[in-house]
Amino acid sequence: APEDEAVQGAIMDEAMQVLVRHRTFGCAPELAAAIHEIVKQRTGREDPYQEVKARDVAAALRLDPLLRRFAAGGPDVLLRTLKVSATGNVMDSALYSNLDIEACVTEELERPFAVCDLEPFEADLQNAGTILIIGDNAGETVFDKVLAEELSRHCDVLFAVRDRAIINDVTAREAHAVGIDAHARVVSTGCAAPGAILDSCSPEFRSLFDNADILISKGQGNFEALYGAP
Length: 230
Known about the structure:
alpha/beta
């Protein structure tokens, strides 16, 4: 976020003090939230990754025709839209840089799922009134929009975002910018960590979480936050 090396050094010094207390945090997203709060305070920027998110969203939107061609390219539309949504993880700027996004996405789309529970998912979908998708990074939301559009043919879809800016994760701002609100109701988790830590989420989100017929959790941060949750 800052170009000033003195500020970078101060951030690292404070972050190291947080890291030595890592056992006091319940999960990795909780630890990450504490470290990135230091970044915000030291830089004076509430959304230090704003430019990164805007770049990733723009890159993902350029892929939208490719994603829709793939989704419509066979009779198994639900499976193909699920594959599109899963493939969105390659948009994570924390893991990738300076790569050919289109080539990576094309390769991932053609790669079969290692584990595919399509049949039980379809069975659950037959009786579902509400699906809650918990979003991950901002660029990935363009891929999730393809899935949300398909699922909205069957039931009501909710799309959960971070309550405030954290790393390159999706907030309401990016969700509306990519147009996912045309197919899903955008809701906040009430939590600003890079993962839906239920104890930190709002009562409103907890009610949506507890009452949704199907939950779709996207990304490593949400997995780490939700693993073992009741």
